[in-house]
Amino acid sequence: MEEKKIEEIERELHNIEEQLKEINSRFKLQEGFKFSDFIQEIAGATLMAFPFAANSDVWELSQKMSNLHALLLVVLIVVGLYFVIKYGKIGNWKVQNVGGFVPLRLITILAVSFTVSALALLILGVYPAIVDSKEWFLRAVVLVSLFSVMGSFGLDAAK
């Protein structure tokens, strides 16, 4: 009698395991950083960077802000993005780390955003036609990147 119950329990357990495997395969999160993620980051950064790079208010503000303000803005961007990635509920982003503690998305979003912001200012001819010094250009890149990071992160997280 006990052997029948044990066999029945084992069969039920096997059926449950099979059902769990099927459910898991349907809802499995995509793991790892893919090329499509990179493209989404570029698209989001571009959508936000170009309008702000073409805005004279941004040029004027970046001209009047000090290098210390630019540095503080970079720190704010990095720390804010780190906390959103690390403590937000964004799939498996927080387990994708470089060096054990730096989220991969932090590195890619920052690299994409700063690069796209600099390219936007160059492509639109803002630098060197209007923004005429390298120091001013770097401050403008930082300021445009504030918005570019939001676009890059937002579009990548929205998938």
Give an account of the 3D structure.
The protein is mainly alpha-helical and about 160 residues long. The chain has two domains: about 1-30; about 35-155, no CATH class. It is about 75% helix and about 5% strand. The chain contains seven helices and two strands. The chain has helices at about 1-25, 35-55, 55-65, 65-85, 105-125, 125-130, 135-155, and strands at about 95-100, 100-105. The chain has a two-stranded antiparallel sheet. β1 (about 95-100) and β2 form a beta hairpin. α3 (about 55-65) crosses α7, α4 packs parallel to α7 (about 135-155) and α5 (about 105-125) crosses α7 (about 135-155). It is elongated, with a radius of gyration of 24 Å. The protein starts with a helix and ends with a helix. The model has no long low-confidence stretch (mean pLDDT about 85).
Strand order of the largest sheet: 1-2
Q: Average pLDDT, to the nearest integer?
A: 85
Largest sheet: 2 strands, antiparallel
State the distance separating the first and last CA atoms: 54 Å
> Cα-atom Rg, whole angstroms?
24 Å
- The helix content is over 70%
Order of helices and strands: HHHHEEHHH
Count of helical regions: 7
Count of individual domains: 2
Find the structural class using helix and strand composition: mainly alpha
Q: Which band does the percent of strand residues land in?
A: under 5%
InterPro entries: DUF2391
Keywords: Membrane, Transmembrane, Transmembrane helix
Organism: Thermovibrio ammonificans (strain DSM 15698 / JCM 12110 / HB-1)
Protein name: Integral membrane protein
